[in-house]
């Protein structure tokens, strides 16, 4: 599915409402093509999943139970530079 301007506008507005003034608390590499950002807002925790690859996607998801125990080197690098940012 191609994203046109209208779809991008709606997506940006929805993500802005959910993530505005949030702080990235934790970052996980769920699999080879997916990153999970745990974002803390003033009133709630939000899980933002970003998937790249054959079927790219960005969406708010429910908490994932089976997260990797050992972070990859990419995940460690991203944690070092991204965690704690707004």
Explain what the structure shows.
By secondary structure, the protein is of the alpha+beta class. The chain has a single domain, classed as ibrinogen binding protein from staphylococcus aureus fold, CATH 2.30.310. It has two helices and four strands; from the N terminus they run αββββα. The chain has a four-stranded antiparallel β-sheet with strand order 1-2-3-4, with helices on one face. The model has no long low-confidence stretch (mean pLDDT 89).
Write the layout of secondary structure elements.
Elements: H1 5-19, E1 23-31, E2 34-40, E3 45-51, E4 57-61, H2 73-82
Antiparallel strand pairs: 1-2, 2-3, 3-4
* Average pLDDT score: 89
Note the main sheet: 4 strands, antiparallel
Q: Taking strands numbered 1, 2, ... along the chain, how are they ordered across the largest sheet? A: 1-2-3-4
Structural class: alpha+beta
User: What is the CATH first-level class name?
Assistant: Mainly Beta
Helix content: 25-40%
- Residue fraction in strands: 25-35%
| Total domain units | 1
Q: Describe the global form.
A: globular
Q: According to CATH, what is the topology?
A: ibrinogen binding protein from staphylococcus aureus fold
Radius of gyration: 14 Å
How many β-strand runs? Answer: 4
Ends distance:
30 Å
CATH homologous superfamily placement: ibrinogen binding protein from staphylococcus aureus domain
Q: State the CATH architecture.
A: Roll
Low-pLDDT windows of residues: none
Number of helices: 2
Summarize the structure.
The chain is an alpha+beta fold.
């Amino acid at each position: 599915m191609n994203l046109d301007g209208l779809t991008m506008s709606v997506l940006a507005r929805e993500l802005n409402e959910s993530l505005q003034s949030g702080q990235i608390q934790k970052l996980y590499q769920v699999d080879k093509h997916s990153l999970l950002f745990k974002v803390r807002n003033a009133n709630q925790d939000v899980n933002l999943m970003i998937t790249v690859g054959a079927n790219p996607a960005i969406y708010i998801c429910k908490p994932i139970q089976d997260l990797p125990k050992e972070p990859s080197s990419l995940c460690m690098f991203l944690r070092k530079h991204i965690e704690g940012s707004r």
